[in-house]
Design a protein that fits this description.
By secondary structure, the protein is of the alpha+beta class. Among the domains are: about 90-175 and about 230-235 and about 255-300 and about 335-360 and about 370-390, Catalase HpII,  Chain A, domain 1 (Beta Barrel); about 470-535, Hemocyanin, N-terminal domain, CATH 1.20.1370; about 550-710, Rossmann fold. The protein is built from 19 helices and 25 strands. The strands form six sheets. Strands 5, 6, 7, 8, 9, 10, 11, 12, 13 and 14 form a ten-stranded antiparallel β-sheet that branches. A five-stranded parallel β-sheet has the order 19-16-15-20-21. The chain has a four-stranded antiparallel β-sheet with strand order 22-23-24-25, with no helix packed on it. The two termini are about 45 Å apart. It binds CIS-heme D hydroxychlorin gamma-spirolactone. CIS-heme D hydroxychlorin gamma-spirolactone binds near residues 91, 173, 353 and 380. This is Catalase.
């Protein structure tokens, strides 16, 4: 049982009680009312509301320093906060498990049992995050999303600390502090929050053209995901795998979401930022609680050692993807997130990741970004959580930990051993270095001269940025132009927006022209760099539609008023629930709304003023009597809801008076609005299509409603 929103709710069913959950339960405290309230040293407290005061009988006088109970309460409170993460401060997490597929290609490349042993269920914790904003910033800002996975394997913890974008802004870790200073709020006024739309960011990326590819991803729809559940995840860096024949492979890790890759529209994203800043956090919780646990397939791309230099790009450069036409994806396992946290701070806030945490069979490459990351993460956790951070319940492995590391602040282990060094006279008994099964570094031959430099192929920055733009669909390209135009418009220093619009011409002439026109930048007079014309699979989000279209976990608003048709609502709600969607009835007030039949009503979950179209994926307005239709059309909120949902390309359906209301609201935009037929079998696909058997009513990305048959 866990407590959400003040009520006790049942834990999600069908949840494998993994080793990590069992481990956490050892320190999970159920609230037992009969225990009574106590101090931290266990003494019962009879009054937790009033300071101990001097009183002469006529009323209370000054408070007494002696009040150890009040002092403890206030001192504990004074120290509740820890430093927030220097980046990725805002996040949400969930528990789950990973299972390797039986007979996958993984065992050709690695002996890491977590990736090859299909009989295992490995517990995981995943933390999603934004990068720029503070811990209290909004979820739906335009930003890269962190996708950090901790696998509690039987051989130790493996942390795959990735993002929802496959490349990075910089090539060498040495640039990270400069990059983060530039992206974060400006130092003189701490503006802006949760945005890269400011002079310093665009100044830096303009002067650091290796960022061009990643900036394109961030300005595209990938920067504004609909849900954490609808994002890809990428390890980004090049790691290595070692197989049992001692052969080494370079590897990139990919997480492919079962639900496909979907984004908000930009207008939606920033409205939700104000309307519901916890939108993504709540979405994750809502899906898991509604038995729609998010799932991802783990896929790998591998390159044999001997082929390292056979590509026009450097495979150790984190600003480059490995096009799947050149290096195919192998699907090797599945991750499911099926359990929300019991308490945010000890779990989601105290979880701590390190790229250097790998398990036997997985290793590093000379990727200079990864090399620096391996140094940075452990260090930052010491500042955030203290040197014994790996003893915290959420961080400790499920396999035994035994070594001679000792002491430090907040040591919670009591080691029963008279020696704390190796070698020692006792020789036998733990902990001694493993004769077998220990972590084994690949014997890589390295000869060289000490220098600060980058490999020659690291100097090329625009080929793949162009590949990215070429591979987008037309609406995605339009969104990319809008993204760049919004951000550069927020830079008020002409040096910044003029130089960035010049840089864009190295990527794409049309993109540079469109953006420069919008923001008053430098209009290119000729093509800056010939377009190589190449495209690749896996850039456009349309390449990642779900294998089976589904409306599972999608939020559907049913707008009603008094006099609605009860059958229409009941039937639609039942059909939606049966297909796993989450319907909400929204009316003029929360509470009972009377139907056209008089007696039979429906309980509205929310009232019109408390919700907005942006919080839902689709809209349905049932039939009702004439007064009902008139009331809906007289409501500015309802009319705005429909128009806004239409503008955001949402699926919209109505029957009878509902249809008339939709026509009324959209008359200005689409005078000849046409409706497709649908019935209670309606299925709202993730494309925003309501279909039933033969017809579908579809709002397309070009803001036109079409009727598509079949
Ligand atoms: Fe990082 C946090 C992802 C480059 C230094 N990073 C952090 C988190 C994610 C990433 C998802 C949040 C983890 C969590 O939820 O707790 N970082 C990346 C990716 C990178 C990357 C995909 C490029 C491939 N990072 C990177 C570099 C450095 C850092 C080059 C330093 C040289 N990152 C950190 C950090 C953070 C962090 C300062 C802040 C909080 C933390 O580590 O635990 O150490």
């Amino acid at each position: 049982m866990s407590s959400v929103g003040g009520t006790i709710k049942q834990a999600v069913t069908n949840m494998p009680n993994t080793a990590k959950i069992a481990d956490l339960q050892r320190c999970t405290v159920e609230t037992v009312p009969s225990t009574g309230l106590t101090t931290d040293h266990g003494v019962r407290v009879s009054d937790t509301d009033n300071l101990l005061k001097l009183s002469d009988g006529s009323g209370p006088g000054p408070a007494l320093l002696e009040d150890h109970i009040a002092r403890e309460k206030i001192h504990r409170f004074d120290h509740e906060r820890i430093p927030e993460r220097v980046v990725h401060a805002r996040g949400a997490g969930a528990h789950g498990y990973f299972k390797a597929y039986e007979g996958s290609a993984a065992s050709q490349f690695t002996y890491a049992s977590v990736l090859t042993d299909s009989t295992r269920t490995t517990p995981v914790f995943v933390r999603f995050s934004t990068v720029q904003g503070a811990r209290g910033s909004a979820d739906t800002v335009r930003d890269v999303r962190g996708f950090a996975v901790k696998m509690y394997t039987q051989e130790g913890n493996w942390d795959l600390v990735g993002n929802n974008i496959p490349v990075f802004f910089i090539q060498d870790a040495m640039k990270f502090p400069d990059f983060v200073h530039a992206v974060k709020p400006e130092p003189h006024n701490e503006v802006p929050t949760g945005q890269t739309a400011h002079n310093n960011f665009w100044d830096f990326v303009g002067l650091q053209p290796e960022s061009a590819h990643m900036v394109c991803w961030a300005m595209s729809d990938r920067g504004i995901p609909r849900s954490y559940r609808m994002m890809q995840g990428f390890g980004v860096n090049t790691y290595t795998l070692l197989n049992s024949a001692n052969e080494r492979f370079f590897v990139k890790f990919h997480w492919l979401p079962e639900l496909g890759v979907h984004s908000l529209m930009w207008d939606e994203a920033f409205k939700i930022g104000g309307q519901d800043p916890d939108f993504h956090r709540k979405d994750l919780e809502e899906a898991i609680e509604n038995d729609a646990p998010p799932k991802w397939t783990l896929a790998i791309q591998t390159i044999a050692e001997k082929d390292e230099h056979n590509f026009e790009f450097d495979i150790l450069d984190a600003t480059k993807i490995w096009p799947t036409e050149l290096v195919p994806l192998h699907e090797i396992g599945e991750m499911v997130l099926n359990r929300t946290v019991d308490e945010y701070f000890p779990e989601t806030e105290q979880i701590a990741f390190c790229t250097s945490h790998v398990v036997p069979g997985i290793g590093f490459s000379d990727d200079p970004l990864l090399q620096g990351r391996n140094f940075s993460y452990f260090d930052t956790q010491i500042t955030r959580l203290g040197v014994n951070w790996e003893q915290l319940p959420i961080n400790r492995p499920v396999c035994p930990v035994m070594n001679h590391n000792r002491d430090g602040q907040h040591q919670t282990r009591i080691n029963k051993c008279p020696v704390n060094y190796w070698p020692n006279r006792l020789n036998a008994g733990p902990p001694v270095p493993a004769a077998q099964g220990g972590y084994h570094e690949f014997a890589q031959k390295v000869v060289g001269i000490k220098q600060r430099l980058r490999a020659p192929k690291f100097q090329e920055h625009f080929n793949q940025a162009q590949l990215f733009v070429n591979s987008l669909s037309a609406p995605e390209k339009a969104h990319l132009i809008a993204g760049f135009s919004f951000e550069l418009n927020h830079c008020d220093d002409p040096v910044v927006y003029e130089s960035y619009t010049k840089l864009l011409n190295n990527i794409d002439f049309d993109l540079a022209t469109a953006v420069a026109t919008n923001v008053g930048g430098v209009l290119p007079s000729e093509v800056g760099r010939p377009n190589h014309g190449q495209t690749t699979f896996g850039i456009s989000q349309l390449d990642f539609m779900p294998k089976t279209p589904t409306i599972k976990s999608r939020r559907i608003a049913i707008l009603i008023a008094d006099g609605f048709d009860a059958t229409g609502v009941t039937v639609m709600k039942t059909a939606l629930k049966a297909s796993g969607a989450v319907p909400f009835v929204i009316g003029p007030r929360r509470g009972n709304i009377s139907s056209s039949g008089g007696s039979e009503g429906v309980f509205a979950d929310h009232h019109f003023e408390s919700q907005r179209s942006t919080m839902f994926d689709a809209l349905y307005i049932p039939n009702g009597n004439v007064e009902y239709g008139a009331a809906l059309r007289a409501s500015g909120r309802v009319v705005h809801w429909i128009a806004e949902a239409f503008g955001h390309c949402k699926a919209i359906a109505g029957l009878g008076e509902g249809q008339n209301t939709i026509q009324h609201a959209l008359a200005h935009y689409v005078p000849e609005l046409a409706f497709g037929a649908f019935d209670s079998d309606a299925v709202v696909t993730s494309y925003g299509v309501i279909t039933s058997g033969k017809y579908s009513l579809r709002s397309t990305a070009t803001d036109v409603i079409n009727i598509a048959s079949g």
